[in-house]
Amino acid sequence: MSPVLVRLAFRNVFRNRKRSIITFLSISLGLAALVFGQGLMLGIGNESMKNIIDYQTAHLTISPPGYLDMKETSLSPSVPDYPEILNSLERLPHVEGATARIVVPAVLNDGMNDLPCLASGVDVQTDGHVFRLADVVAEGRYLQGQRLEMVVGTRLAGQFAARPGDRLNVIMQDRGGEIEVQSLEVAGLVDTGNPTVDRGSLFIPLGVMQRALGMEGQATEVAVRLRRASDVGAGRAAIASFLAAEGLDLDVSEWTELAGDFLRLHRLKKRAFGVMTGVIVLLAAVGIVNTMLMASFERTREMGMMMAMGMKARTVLILFLLEGAVLGLFGGLAGGLLGGAATYYTEVHGIDIGAMYGDIDIGYPIRDVLRGDLTVGTLIGTLCFGVVVSVLASLYPAWRASKLVPSEALRHV
Amino acid sequence: MQRKDQIVKLEDVSKEYRVGRIAVPAIRGITLSIDAGAFLSIAGPSGSGKTTLLNLIGCIDRPTAGSVYLEGTEISALPSSRLAEIRSSSLGFIFQTFNLVPVLSALENVEFPLVISGTMGGRERRRRAQEMLEEVGLADLMGRRPNELSGGQQQRIAVARALVKQPAIVLADEPTANLDSGTGGSILELMREMNERRGTTFLFSTHDRMVMEYARRLILLRDGRIERDDGEVS
């Protein structure tokens, strides 16, 4: 392809400045929306996943076979000899920390009202190696030692208007099927931004839980944090082979299995967002078709002249497609800059959803501030997408121009 | 058969255009031969078939009946891509409204036919275009765009563009119609000079008497037929 042809395509695009600017605007605004939306979805997705891992699932969970199906029932089987497993896990590759928990369904009661929730017995010494609950205490303090106390999700506590220092009853079923009522002082309230935790979880020292349920020396699961989230596959394999070598009949589950509902919903939202931006980009593409058709009408005689000079139909087609590509390239650059700047702003400053929506659940486990995530991949992808859409939108006008008959085109007024 | 020095030959050529269901004849059974190096004017009133005849010779249009030979090759039945190649290699065109590309400079406009033919590299192309502009006396305006040039200058650029690839034939459709008589005369002088210096065959259509006087051979068309052919005048 001759550089002259490329130069010609560039200059032709700027021939009708007003029209080109309007077309650029429509492409760039469409693509800016795409970059911004994608960045926001990516940021929200990443932030949500981090939240789920930090406060809800950890990276990996070691549990007895069938635990995932029976979780949240009081008949959950338990992990035997968990202290030995914890010791060994720390030496395995990829593992940053591990902790044992007992997770059972419970009812929280203030003497008047009941609310169902999930009670977790947490090892105060090691839980912080895996979970980040201690960092998100909104009121009061985190658990200390084996006191008869608990920390409660802010929204759950809010239902009882409970504050640190208040006492609430936790009703659970022990291994023998007997109802156990523990009157515990609220040590603190945790605000994770994760509705599952904030609205429906409370945390009790593991020893207190073990004694209450008659599960001394037992846990229902061992949660594992890895050094990097991307190590999940390798970490799981290393742990599974260690468990097999020790002859322990335990399953290892990834956080994606435990947060399957969230991930499915997130995928669905991403798809819905894709359809929405697809419509925006389609509208921009209609603008490109219009611009290129106008150009092909206006330049009919010029095309006739070029064809009379021997320019082949294929070259005419290429020239118009190049013009479409130039429109897409500039639109993509402008859209990338605009959308990138907006996304970067949200990445640095965030969007304070607390201030905007108050206590309304936005459907994502995120603490107060939404942050976009701007990646080079999104920018390059958008630029390529802009060029491809523009070239596709130019196909018909280009084909029409290439089908001109020189003698008729030269007569065109 | 076509004689060696005959560059164009038409045998009983007709051309009809269809307007709806009606066939409108533009050329009716023309037989004609043109020698290489001719400086020939096709004259006649509007609608007499001048442009159609030029288009047939210029491989821009195909005859409805008859045969057109160009440098010994029968072109009527050739595929469009081959006709485009012939136009690119052997023919130069000058148009009534100059038809320069407005976004290209004078130099780039002259260079453009060489870009289309794709036969030479950028540097050589540029050198040839510069030489051509010097020949038409516009070397110092080579960076200007068409809208920065007068009508006469634009048509000079068009002449340079038609000649830059050294075609065997240059076809000019009413080349002076949009110019005042003085400028038109200088364009005709330029064309004649190129014809004499380079031996390029020039065929031009006109209904301007001054242009007819410049021609060494004059063919008068009326209603798609040759009314008069003066033959070659030295």
TrEMBL record, chain A:
Main location: membrane
Membrane topology per record: Multi-pass membrane protein
Keywords annotated in UniProt: Cell membrane, Membrane, Transmembrane, Transmembrane helix
One GO-annotated biological process of the protein: lipoprotein localization to outer membrane
A Pfam family recorded for this sequence: MacB_PCD
GO cellular component: plasma membrane protein complex
Keyword Protease: no
Domain ABC3 transporter permease C-terminal: 275-405
Record's subcellular location: Cell membrane
Parts of the chain that traverse the membrane: 272-295, 316-338, 374-396
Ranges for domain MacB-like periplasmic core: 20-240
Top-level taxon of the source organism: Bacteria
Family the entry assigns: Belongs to the ABC-4 integral membrane protein family. LolC/E subfamily.
PANTHER family, per database record: LIPOPROTEIN-RELEASING SYSTEM TRANSMEMBRANE PROTEIN LOLE
Listed name of the protein: ABC3 transporter permease protein domain-containing protein
Organism: candidate division TA06 bacterium SM23_40
Lineage of the species this protein comes from: Bacteria, Bacteria division TA06
